[in-house]
Design brief:
It is a single chain. This protein is an alpha/beta fold. The protein is 32% helix and 29% strand. It has helices spanning 3-16, 42-55, 73-85, 97-106, 116-125, 145-154, 177-182, 251-260, 293-303, 329-338, and strands at 24-27, 37-40, 63-66, 88-90, 111-113, 135-139, 159-166, 170-176, 186-190, 195-199, 202-206, 217-218, 222-226, 232-237, 241-244, 247-250, 264-274, 278-287, 312-315. The relative contact order is 0.10.
């Protein structure tokens, strides 16, 4: 973290104080760019480790590879949970996927923990099969069928486990890759001891494994619904909608569509102001080798109504990531405004 960020974090803590029952603080992976410390008791993590380790098939023999800042609670939680079980963590500060693959092969890694952004980088650089991988654990960022199929080819022995969680609430739901393929858009069913319900399209979670200062039933304002089999179908965060002259476009749904196009490796959408329609959007894309952007635009114009066409589609070699391994949309907006 840079000096300015650390100094602002210190000012916030000095002004707001520390929750009385807290043992440590964590930072959210939000999009504001400002520090937001959240406070936890040790037991709110420790008492959930055995539950999550059972779901993720983590034990004393586990060798897990992960990459990312420990300020991201997903990474720090996973590291401590694996060590709690007696397993081994393999990591590196290197951003080079070739280095990740080298470590995975050298240490005969059997688990990978990564968000889809990192998995896409792995897929693009992996030239041979990795037979040692038994499980890939991924957060419920935008996932697509093509990525799943690519991972199955590279890691033929792996089982995919998708989870949905929140910094404030720990892990909430999970499912296997097969369940996700059968119900595209699901983030699974609740972890043991966790209960979910939907009210007016908003997800409410009941769990005792949460940060200090919030009730046992709480919402982070994520939207979705529960199907008849108890699977949570995820529709994104409240506000993840572009109002284009009265026509509503879901950002997660549009990103999923663009991601599914043949030749598109990665995609991110940013919302921009529009003098006529009020709001519009721009799509940034990383394309696979030999894919022409003009062909992608042609497909979009053929398959989608004109009101759903991005104002611009910009090709870049790599999407910028935050410390938390999520797409840095603030950086993309800066690039667009400067351009």
């Amino acid at each position: 973290m840079d000096t300015e960020y650390v100094e602002e974090l210190a000012r916030i803590i000095a002004y707001k104080g520390v929750a009385p029952l807290a043992d440590f603080g964590v930072l959210t992976s939000g999009t504001t760019g400002r520090p937001k410390p959240l406070w936890r008791s040790e037991s709110s993590w420790r008492e959930f480790f055995d539950i999550q380790n059972d779901i993720f098939h983590i034990n004393k023999d586990t060798k897990i590879f992960l990459h990312g800042s420990f300020s991201f609670t997903g990474v720090s939680n996973m590291v401590i949970a694996v060590l709690w079980s007696g397993g081994t963590v393999i990591t590196t500060s290197s951003l080079r996927p070739n280095r990740w693959i080298q470590l995975i092969e050298e240490y005969h890694v059997d688990h990978i923990y990564a968000l889809p952004t990192k998995l896409r980088l792995l897929v693009r650089h992996c030239k041979s099969k990795v037979d040692s991988i038994n499980y890939i654990i991924a957060g419920s960022q935008v996932l697509d069928r093509q990525l799943m199929e690519q991972l199955e080819r590279i890691c033929p022995n792996m089982e995919f486990i998708l989870y949905y969680g929140a910094t404030e609430l720990n892990y909430i739901t999970y499912c296997t890759g097969k369940e996700w393929l059968d119900r595209e858009g699901t983030v699974g069913r609740p972890f043991p001891s966790v209960r979910i319900e939907e009210q007016n399209g908003v997800i409410y979670v009941t769990t005792k494994h949460h940060i200090e200062g919030i009730p046992d039933t709480y919402t982070v304002n994520d939207c979705g619904y529960i199907d008849r089999d108890g699977y949570l179908m995820f529709n994104g965060r409240q506000g993840d909608v572009i109002n284009k002259g009265g026509y509503k476009i879901s950002i997660p749904e549009m990103e999923l569509y663009l991601q599914s196009l043949q030749g598109v490796s990665e995609v991110a959408i940013i919302t921009i102001n529009d003098d006529i329609r009020g709001e519009d959007f721009v799509a940034y894309m990383v394309l696979e080798d030999n894919t022409e952007l003009s062909k992608i635009i042609e497909i979009i114009h053929h398959e989608r109504p004109s009101v759903e066409w991005p104002k611009a589609i910009l090709e870049i070699p790599m999407l910028p990531l935050t410390e938390c391994s999520k797409i840095d949309k603030r950086k993309l907006k800066e690039w667009y405004n400067k351009g």
